[in-house]
Amino acid sequence: MLLEIFGEHLRRGIIANKRGGFYVAYFLDWDDKMGRAIPLRGNLNYRFFQLACVISMVFLLPILLLRCYQLYVTVPPVESKMTINYTFFATFLMIMFIQYAQVVMCESGPKAFVNCYEAILKLERDIKQFIPELYYDRGTSVDRAVAMVTLFPKIFFHGIDYILPSMFLIVGLSQSSPLYTLLRAIYNFESVGPHVSFAVLIVTAVATCVAGTGILSTISICILFICYGISCLYVWTLFLIPIYCRNPSMMKPRA
Question: What residue ranges are annotated as transmembrane (predicted)?
Answer without folding.
Answer: 48-66, 86-105, 162-183, 195-217, 223-245
